Description:
binds manganese (II) ion; alpha/beta; globular; binds 3-isopropylmalic acid; two-stranded antiparallel ribbon; Isopropylmalate Dehydrogenase
Amino acid sequence: MKSYNIAVIKGDGIGPEIIDEAIKVLDRVGDIFDIKFNYKEYLMGGCAYEETGDPLPQETIDGAFKSDAVLFGSIGGYKWDNLPRALRPETGLLKLRSALGVFANLRPVKVYHELTQASNLKEEIVSGVDLMVVRELTGGIYFGKPREKGDDKAYNTMVYSKDEIKRIAKIAFDIAQKRRKKVCSVDKANVLEVSQLWRETVEEVAKDYPEVELTHMYVDNASMQLILDPKQFDVILTGNIFGDILSDEASMISGSIGLLPSASIGGKIGVYEPIHGSAPDIAGQGIANPIATISSASMLLKYSLNELDASMAIDKAIAKSLHDGYRTGDIAKYGVKKVCSTSEMGSIIADNIGVKKQ
Ligand code: IPM
Ligand code: MN
């Protein structure tokens, strides 16, 4: 039997609830496909700060490096909003991404056929959307120096080296090659020097991919085009902050931010997490949508473990659960048979993978 070590970081807010469901589903897929998952839990975020005084204890970094992949829920909460930057929950996550070198964040946006009416956008606009945001994750304004917060003045720096742009562009083109062969690079080259270099570099990389069509779009226009006609996009390649913003926007095409998974790859160990936050307003109520996290577990199987059949089994089980009319509250708009709790939704998805062998 194959066996893998998964570092599990539940985090804050709804993190523990949604991770429990992802584990439930992973265990079931493991039973069916003869895979054993060994989970080890680590602290990060507000909970880590409370216990250790550090939002990313060294033990968590070491644990991540010793694992085959990291499954992560969410971090943050009102309680820690006034902490100095170095101690904030978000700093823990950013440091983990940086430490692991996961520079490529893949955020697929797929509209489930059953949920075309769950989006606030018209059905004909969202139906059939299938795009991938490739977000640079360990550079740009999130990490650029100098940065400082003064009382009267504060600044951050958006910086990208040519090498950083090249490696993320390659990932986007490689992915596009296996999809519909279109890359739209999103920047703000009409205003920012860093975007000018971004554009030039992406053009250079494109020469190695003659069969992939490359277009460029300014980020303001891209945010409008995403809502106007999301089907025009195949792969969206963009920097850290633009990708953060555009992927939240794109989640509304799918109907709920509770649906979108992500994979952070490019380093030695991949990190898999939903794109949404810790939703402190609904934490502990058992109503959060676990699908984004379960779907992230599917990406973990695909990208870190190369367990493609198991990954596909999860995707199919999610689709079947939606097809059968099961919905958490956030997507309980049309075609609902039963409004489910977080844990009911996880169990239904697990059951749709199959029944345990005796
Ligand atoms: C995300 C989140 C993070 C980010 C925060 C929590 C640091 O919004 O993963 O999209 O901005 O990258
Ligand atoms: Mn975000």
